[in-house]
Amino acid sequence: MTRFVIDAPTLLHLVAERVDVAPDHQLVAPQVLRSQALELLFAAVSRGELTEADALERHDTMTRVKVRSLGDRVSRRVARQIAREHGLASTTYAEYLAVTRLQADVFVSVDPAARARAQDVVPVGSVDQLSTGIG
Description:
The chain is α/β, with parallel strands linked by helices and 135 residues long. The chain has one domain (2-130): 5'-nuclease (Rossmann fold, 3-Layer(aba) Sandwich). 53% of the residues lie in helices and 15% in strands. It has helices spanning 8-16, 33-46, 52-64, 73-85, 92-103, 112-118, 127-130, and strands at residues 2-6, 25-30, 67-70, 106-108, 124-125. It has a 5-stranded parallel sheet with strand order 3-2-1-4-5. α1 links the parallel β1 (2-6) and β2. α2 packs antiparallel against α3 and α4 (73-85) crosses α5 (92-103).
């Protein structure tokens, strides 16, 4: 089984594109994942990119996606260390990298900037890997 850390934009991409994650893969993320995804949906509605009904439908679907929430004092400590070492402005994003480093195999994001930040810190994969049995 391959454990993939996904971020909020990727969770919403999986929902919008109806990507089925291969059964031998596990999705994991810091505990803030669903709150951040909800913020992104709210912002998309505010910008007129989604209707309220579409956002609610995506939110409902998002809550059914099986993602194991991880995070503890150790991962938060590692997140602070990663943020300092790599010049990140906050630890929020570094939490994804810390969870990847400590408890997963690969980080996946649809956000090119997120992938670039992660490149020198943890293994980075693609969304295509999630729907295949190959880790």
